[in-house]
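User: Fold this; tokens only.

Assistant: Input:
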Amino acid sequence: MRNIISIRILFLIIVFSIFAVSSYTDGNTYAQNARTFATGTVVDEQGQPIPGVNVLCQNSNYGTTTTIDGTFKIQTKGKNPILEFSFIGFQKQEITIKDPKKLIKVVMIEDGYMLDETVVIGYGTQTKRTITSAMTSIKSEELSGYVGSSIEQTISGLVPGVRIQTSDATPGGDINVEVRGIGTVTAGSEPLYIVDGIPMEGGLSAVNPDDVSNIQILKDAASTAVYGSRGANGVILITTKRGESAKPTITINAATTIAQIQHKFELMNTAQLLEYYKDKNLNERFRYTTNQNQDYFPFDENLNTDWQDAIFQNAIQQKYNLSIAGGSKNMRYRISGEYFDQEGILICTGMKRFAFRSNFDIELNKWAKVTVNFAPTFINQKRTREGGEGSNSVIRTAISMYPFFPVKLPNGEYFSTLEYNLAPTNVADSRDPETGAFPTLTDSPLADNQDNPVRIAHEYKNETSQNRIVGGLNFELKLAKGLTFKPSLAIDIMSSENSIWYPASIGKNRTDSEASTTMTRKLMWINENILTYQKEFGDHNISAVGGMTIQSNQLNKLYTSAYHFATESLPSINGGVVNGGSYNKTEDRMLSYIARLTYDYKRKYMVQGVFRADGSSRFGKNNKYGYFPSISAGWAMTEEKFMKPLRKVLSELKLRGSFGLSGNNAIGDYNYETKMSQQSYIVDGSVVSGWAPSNIANPDLKWEVSKQTNLGIDIGLFHNRIFMQLDLYKSITSDMLLNTIVPSTLGVSRMLQNVGSVENKGIEFNIVSRNLTGKFKWTTTFNISANRNKVLALGLDSEAITDGVAESNITKVGYPIGMFYGNVFRGIYQSMEEIQALRNDPYSGLAFDPNVRPGDCKWYDLNGDGLYDDNDRTIIGNPYPRFNAGMVNTFSYKNFSFSFQLNGQYGNQIYNYTLRETLRGNNNNNLSIKVVDRWRSPESPGNGLADRTYTSNDVRPTTEMSKFTNRYLEDGSYLSIRNIQLSYTFDKKMLRKTFLNGLVLSFNIDNLHTFTKYTGMNPEANTFRSATAPGIDRTGYPLSRNFTMGLKVTL
């Protein structure tokens, strides 16, 4: 009985326990099943839904994305959960959910600077937020609407610290690009260009601007050290557009441009010139006979030929682009083609380019993918003898021609002074029948034998054809989580042929035709093997890059020239006798090792270290390798807790600093070895040819090294609606390559050594302001930068280096490279009383000539020897601006968009060689308009620049006829309306009944007007394009004003 009771009690306990456990379990299960959700909509500041926004619930694994209409539904956890909303281009939002049943509306605020955006850096990518170096990123839509043949023109004025000059505006001509000043004298000063990871030498003329996705400009050693011995002049990284996983999209871009000369050189007209001759007591009219039939040629004082109008034209330019892009999950592609036809504003000049590019991204499987890039380009460039150096140039000849000469004779033939002599028909009747005066033949318009510039332009031929193929094959292999191996192989093949035909029938002082051909072949290949690793350890993020690259460059160049042509009907080498030629073959190779380590904690504290070792065949056996380290760090102060109360106003505050080394290996090949050159010798009274050393070998020759320091600060205000960057930098280039003097007993006079040093330091400021963000948007970007250059050393035996026109530029310790160097002009003597007073003043500092009289020029005698000569030269001007600036304003309302860009520089000077040739009244050419306001009397002193006229009987005082003086230095400051663009984007609703997916119409104006005191044609001109001879304008190809209508169609 007791056992039965015990069993019953045990049974009740078990049943109770099961019930209790069951009750607890059921209750807990119910609690788990009672899940809570938050729902809502995400919109932008205009109320438009945003699809694809990431929505996360903090302290949980719950997440989702918004749908196409901006709605979301997400499971939450805990009491008052916090939802985090993030999307590229918008500020991150955190919303606390107090009532899950209430519909949430989240307004995303646009991130004016998009700090979470990923940008390309050397051998990898990085977010803007974690960058600690000095670099500028430009997306394709931010590029200038400037219509031109090169990418460099589209970024001019957009980047602080980068000075871009269209020094030669010839279609396809050279563009000067300086990043933070000039740091070398002998080596190259151009930045390194990298397109889709492939080094591109010779600029970017072979790249279609419409293919560009984004551009990164690397400016300090922290960003360029990864490129080692090629990074001292800065690096420009260009990434081209690629396809996406979507249905095929066809885009057609078409544009037509009318281009005209922006600014002509102001010259005298016929009436002003004849009045000048009358002032010189010369005949106003002359009679000359032709060399052929002795007919008189009468000057027509009513004829007023504008020779600049005769050689410049309204040019038509056409540009057509076609691209198709799309892809599937495993393969994406973009294929594009371009036809660009740019007729030059100078007659008989132009350029045509056919560019093709294909980019493929193929995912082979989950751990391997491959990208293939292929870009052939074909360029044909036609030039004439347009300007700059050399006689018989078209532009300089047109400026010198008299306005009373016709372009063509009545019979349709070109007029030319070469067809006339100075002998009258009747020798006995040598007086002019109208004035009774004897003509001074040496001062006549025909004495200088100027040929017709229109004729020169048509008959002189200079044509270049270039074929270039660039291709790359890149693999990406995921070896483990976060570990990726990226081997690649790229090749760049270029061949070009330049042919010049210079017939004897054109130009003065010529008796024989000339022809030449230059054939160039270049081959570059590069193999890179890069290993990357990325890992997140909680709040710690680490990224590492390591690898090896090998690059080879080969050059073959053949030059041939000929003369003694029996006829001009065979304008090629085959029609004459070969009289010269040369063949050059060079090759260099570089082997490099790369390492980079990046670390950040909570995106708050950042540090990066870079190391690169370069071994190059260009340098001596004792210095084959160079080592280029750098380190940089950043502190995002706004991520600190104590900054949280300020975040509504101060959204970003980051301090940056860097130090590192980069190099410059652009010195050419074999300069460390002894080279032989052909020389002439006299043997037994006869001249024979032989070979002799031209330099001394230097086994210690090495790269120039640039030590760079950069301090920067990034400031964002009001959710980065205003974003500012300020950088201070200092760069010292040591081991600068210079040709030093060696004892003549060695048989040569020079030896290339690493002995020089130069410093660049400056400041850069950039601001992006989203002024209005509603339906009417207004964004302003502004940048300004200033660089100061100073030579620190030139070697033990070099006090200075001179270069340019008549030693116009000097490079001297303590001064910037290439300062203007010459004699000093003080003005015009106004009266004999002033001359006598200054002659008696021992402190006047002037050089006096016995023949000086009122209206003559004043010249300084700086060494006090009483003479005016080369010993009185000094530094007279600075070719470098005190600062450069650029500004872009963009406005948009509904479907309309309008923008304008201003570029400018201030404080530099330019040597106006055209003014030099047209201000002096002793040459047989037309004169500057400034001569109209010349000195005429003490009561009519003129502009203080143009001196008096000189009659044929005058004894002129010592003048600056062949000297370089400050008389022709002009203020090179300018403010240019660089680009104006108006566009209209058709609404997709308007296109529903068409086959179009998009349609944009645009109208552009380039170089509308330039505000400047400079009287030359182009304030950006730089004839010599040399580090040691900057700022000289020898009448180069001028800028054009362009009017463009554009159409963009998407199918």
